[in-house]
């Protein structure tokens, strides 16, 4: 079905002006690239009504009624994964109304519902939700001074292909397959690096690039805990708290023994809770910074250099702000009883 549109009022008056000046309907239609039928109808309306403004109720009758629109929105909210085709079928079965996919989209848009990719989150069992709720309940009234003793840490992987989901291009209609509009990606993956970093209020660790692509308990101890965390513990004293997640290498026996021998206290951390870790926001910040670089890194060494440079350029105010957001994160998590929060 062809899309329908209405002429802007200024264009309508241009048409009337040309016709009143003596130009023919055909000449006016050709000059303005508008169908002769449209120009003719507009001229007749002006002659009859003295205006080009659309009358109330003028135009094609809506395919659906207000009650059918409400039913459609309710059905979409109850089954958010339903396709437009399925919603159209359910609407027809329930009310007898026949609506195209385009009509379904328009009606749902009018109700504030849009087709979007769902946010992907880690799985939370009932027990994990309780753990998150209890942790946030315990920490939601912590002051900034208390959080200032915590070193938040995490690992992340960055690839040479980057994150194409961040990249948008400007292109003309019908040029989708032009070479300049194509982002190439290796089917079998490409080179990348695993990094580790730590942040505190008014501080950060150097960004560490792991020598190998994977992390074991021994690598974690030798490349992270000993050269970085141990030194931060010494600088901050007995009030220092170390945060890492529950990844298997972090909980290896030799890691536990090292932390105990160095008197490094861990802050308990609920499982499957990247939305509570402020470092996740910085990985996103870092990824966007790499995606903006022109030219982009061409090899693994170039990627390492770029990551180290961009990490050092992150303003400390950004780091302080994401850590200060923990109060809000805890409050939100408590309100939703440990479920996912939008961070």
TrEMBL record:
One of its GO terms (molecular function) is DNA binding. InterPro entries: Homeodomain-like_sf, RNaseH_sf, Tc1-like_DDE_dom, Transpos_IS630-like, Transposase_5, Transposase_Tc1-like, WH-like_DNA-bd_sf. Its main location: nucleus. SUPFAM superfamilies: Homeodomain-like. Residues 150-294 form the Tc1-like transposase DDE domain. Gene3D superfamilies: Ribonuclease H-like superfamily/Ribonuclease H, Winged helix-like DNA-binding domain superfamily/Winged helix DNA-binding domain. It is found in: Nucleus. GO terms for biological process: DNA integration; DNA transposition. It comes from the Eukaryota. Residues 69-141 form the Transposase Tc1-like domain. One of its GO terms (cellular component) is nucleus. This is Transposable element Tcb2 transposase.
